[in-house]
């Protein structure tokens, strides 16, 4: 018999930051470690990763990190985790290729870490626990489900999948392996919930194929297609359609879009030799007006929209959109990009371009719908179900689906990050234990965690601006050498507020005279007194609180 605990450090009640842990007989198995993109109010924050404090405290018990696929919401936090928790990593070849590139990009040396390429026909053994991977259909190659076999039964982790039958190669679901797992006793299923609100089956790509055929057949000249670089399955579809119509292919931003570049170099995006063309910078002799070409504009989140705007405004160095170009938009807005997506459409229509917007309804989803989730549950027949990968509304919808196929509430665990479910002798119970969980805000660099103080300052800067007071002070003779210079950025327009600026200068002189009459100059007290007095005055006059920064230069230094 085993004693098993399940908890999440991220991914429950949110979209992204997926990180789940199984503690089996005092050994910890980490399932994915992803990041989440910030909302607009988190000024300057590049990404959000889980709080790893619990794992750092229990590093000696960690067996390894087991990765399902190569999207950043599942692997993006691994480089930061490896800074303090150096443990083996298990994943498919393509996922490891993406991860190694990500680790290198963060300034780490891949030689310092232990990587294991997993195979569908081979189990990873850890004492009386074994881990199996099986291929699933998703928008990126070699996506995996993970089955952890324990003496009390199998725990299946099933994130980001569909049962789309119109795929091939590395995108196909391994039903043989899935059926072999179903032949065992499945203790618990950790199943994604993002698509649980979508009724019915995930539709196939027939409607998309028809829309693309129509757009390609009627295009009089060059075709420009936008696609998210993480959606390699759709990108391959564009490549195949280009070959069908005997068009050459150019990929904008291939070197910066590392996922696409790695996929091309490793053969996961199949482009025949001679069909992939490189573009030179536009100049007087070269305009890149390739009539029988397809220009693929790939990027993450907002990037395809920015690039299209630059192209239509003729600011891009490679492509200037012409009136006879056909623009195919395969980038429906994702959370946080709605405004720029709408603005991009406005710019394109204003230029009177031939825009073909692919409706989100005909783009095959990348996450299992309600019927597919029920199908997986019926195949595996798990004793317990834990909804993962999704906000609480998604988890709630999945719970309702489970009720439809006969599961009672005591067999379904809807959890928050940090909640713990224990399985002992095959019986699952939600405990009162709470594991430390939370967010780490990352700003640009790997170690750039942001505090609430920094975020508050950024919020103030965005709302009320900043006021700088720059002055020269002779510390030896204790006198002000020059009239202070006041600089406003995002606070007030200087020329229209001369009286306010004069008052600030008077306050500076008044505070300075008081400080300079003392025996010694305490520069910390000097700065704080200036900030306090000027801030109080500005709030009385304007009802705003700009950040006040005194810059006092000692002329004797």
Instruction: Determine the structural class based on helices, strands and strand pairing.
Output: alpha/beta
- Counted up, domains total 3
Specify the oligomeric state: single chain
What is the approximate shape?
Answer: globular
The number of helical runs is 15
Supply the CATH class of the largest domain.
Answer: Alpha Beta
- Tell me the number of strands: 25
The level of helicity is 25-40%
| Physical arrangement of strands within the biggest beta sheet | 7-6-5-3-2-1-19-20
Query: Which whole number gives the mean pLDDT?
Result: 87
CATH fold field value of the largest domain: Metallo-beta-lactamase, Chain A
Q: What is the makeup of the main sheet?
A: 8 strands, mixed
Q: What proportion of the residues form beta strands (DSSP E)?
A: 15-25%
CATH architectural arrangement of the largest domain:
4-Layer Sandwich
CATH superfamily of the largest domain: Ribonuclease Z/Hydroxyacylglutathione hydrolase-like
Q: Enumerate the spans where pLDDT stays under 50 for 5 or more consecutive residues.
A: none
As a whole number of angstroms, the C-alpha radius of gyration is 29 Å
Distance between the termini: 74 Å
């Amino acid at each position: 018999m085993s004693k098993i605990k399940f908890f999440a450090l991220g991914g429950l009640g949110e979209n992204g930051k997926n990180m789940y842990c199984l503690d089996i007989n005092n050994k910890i198995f980490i399932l994915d470690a992803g990041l989440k993109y910030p909302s607009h109010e988190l000024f300057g924050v590049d990404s959000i990763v889980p709080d790893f404090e619990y794992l750092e405290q229990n590093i000696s018990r960690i067996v390894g990190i087991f990765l399902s696929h190569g999207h950043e919401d599942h692997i993006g936090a691994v480089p930061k985790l490896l800074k303090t928790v150096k443990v083996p990593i298990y994943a498919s070849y393509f996922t490891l290729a993406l991860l190694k590139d990500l680790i290198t990009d963060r300034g780490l040396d891949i030689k310092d870490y232990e990587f294991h390429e997993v195979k569908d026909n081979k189990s990873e053994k850890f004492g009386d626990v074994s881990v199996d991977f099986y291929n699933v259909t998703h928008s990126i190659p070699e996506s995996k489900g993970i089955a952890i076999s324990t003496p009390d039964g199998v725990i299946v982790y099933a994130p980001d999948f569909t049962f789309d039958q119109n795929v091939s190669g590395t995108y196909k679901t391994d039903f043989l392996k899935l059926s072999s797992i179903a032949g065992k006793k499945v203790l618990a299923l950790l199943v994604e919930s993002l698509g649980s609100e979508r009724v019915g089956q995930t539709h196939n790509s027939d409607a998309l194929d028809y829309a693309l055929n129509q757009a390609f057949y009627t295009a009089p000249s060059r075709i420009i297609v936008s696609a998210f670089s993480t959606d390699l399955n759709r990108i391959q579809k564009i490549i195949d359609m280009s070959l069908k119509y005997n068009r050459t292919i150019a990929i904008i931003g291939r070197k910066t879009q590392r996922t696409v570049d790695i996929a091309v170099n490793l053969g996961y995006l199949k482009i025949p030799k001679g069909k992939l063309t490189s573009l030179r910078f536009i100049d007087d002799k070269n305009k890149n007006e390739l009539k029988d070409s397809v220009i693929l504009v790939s990027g993450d989140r907002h990037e395809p929209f920015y690039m299209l705007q630059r192209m239509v405004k003729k600011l891009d160095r490679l492509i200037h959109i012409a009136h006879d170009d056909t623009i195919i938009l395969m980038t429906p807005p994702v959370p946080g990009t709605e405004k720029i997506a709408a603005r991009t459409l406005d710019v394109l229509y204003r230029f009177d371009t031939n825009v073909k917007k692919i409706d989100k309804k005909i783009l095959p989803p990348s996450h299992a719908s309600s019927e597919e989730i029920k199908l997986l549950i019926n195949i595996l027949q798990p004793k317990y179900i834990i909804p993962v990968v999704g906000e609480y509304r998604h988890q709630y919808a999945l719970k309702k689906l489970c009720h439809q196929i006969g599961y009672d509430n005591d067999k379904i665990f809807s959890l928050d990050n940090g909640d713990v479910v224990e399985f002992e002798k095959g019986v699952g119970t939600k405990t009162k234990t709470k594991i430390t969980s939370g967010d780490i805000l990352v700003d640009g660099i790997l170690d750039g965690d942001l505090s609430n103080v920094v975020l508050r300052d950024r919020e103030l800067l965005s709302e009320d601006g900043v006021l700088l007071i720059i002055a020269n002070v002779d510390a030896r003779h204790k006198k002000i050498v020059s009239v202070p210079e006041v600089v406003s950025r995002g606070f007030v327009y200087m020329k229209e507020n001369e009286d306010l600026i004069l008052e600030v200068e008077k306050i500076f002189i008044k505070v300075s005279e008081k400080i300079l009459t003392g025996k010694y100059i305490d520069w910390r007290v000097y700065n704080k007194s200036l900030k306090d007095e000027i801030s109080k005055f500005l709030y009385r006059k304007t009802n705003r609180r700009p950040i006040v920064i005194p810059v006092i230069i000692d002329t004797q230094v």
